[in-house]
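Onboarding guide, step 5: your first structure request.
Type a short instruction followed by the sequence, for example:

Predict the 3D structure of this protein.
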Amino acid sequence: MFGRGLAAAGRAARALAVATGGASAEVEVTRQACARAAAGGWLRGFASNSIDSFNVHKDFDGKNTGTEKWDYTEANRKIVDNMLSKYPTNWRQSAMIPMLDIAQQQSGGWLPLSAMNRVAEILGVPEIRVYEVATFYSMFNRTPGGKYHVMVCGTTPCRLQGAQSIEHTISEHLGINMGETTSDGMFTLAEMECMGACVNAPMVCIADFSNGVEGFSYEYYEDLTQDDMRKILDQIKRGEKPKTGSQYRSKAEPAGAIVNRGEKWVPMQGHTTLTGDPPGPRCRDLDAPPPPPPK
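The system replies with structure tokens like these:
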């Protein structure tokens, strides 16, 4: 969507440049198109807030300048120190991603600039190294969002199974569009790439940032219908814990399973399920002596 908008802006810019005899008009029109894209939500990033897809820091009324004091709580610093103890001194930066994850959970679902700076200070690396990681991974949010980040899988299997209708249902039920947060600060709607359970499409992931690190959860809801999605959101609003995983199956049964809607799924005769032991081949015992050479 963003690409189409910029393409149109580019054509307009070139036409204007030809008419005025200068290239500066092209640059200016393209710049204005980028600004409109950011303001109008043309850009569909996969972070919880669409503006995160631009690799710039946002100042929120003077509250994200990087000069604010931020540090891990005493309990969370113990977690961080335990992480650091697993790496050699010269490879401490390997703990950067989990450290940012803890910082995001502590901050209610986003990474203030001061938190990223603190991570850099602890690791003894330039701040830009932390910014590079935080801007690369869409799981890190650099703008504030809701207590619950509702992420809809947007890849092909889920789309074929009705993910777009699930997205529309969430949008209508909460009164927000993709990348937006409800007025009460409870929910943020986002899109996410493959969640790895295509057999149970469509699915949604909900990250709970309402209770810090201790209460953080990252749950998947699968085999969803529009009614299921409304029910899950309403349960969260009431402080209840919705059923996670498949809403109708007990496991990921194979294709061709016999089902009555709302009842337990039964695999067809002769098939196995993911709850049993895999048939192999299995990994060899790495501690066992090597087998003798063939004669």
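Each response can be followed by summary notes, for example: The chain has three domains: 2-43, 46-144, 148-246.
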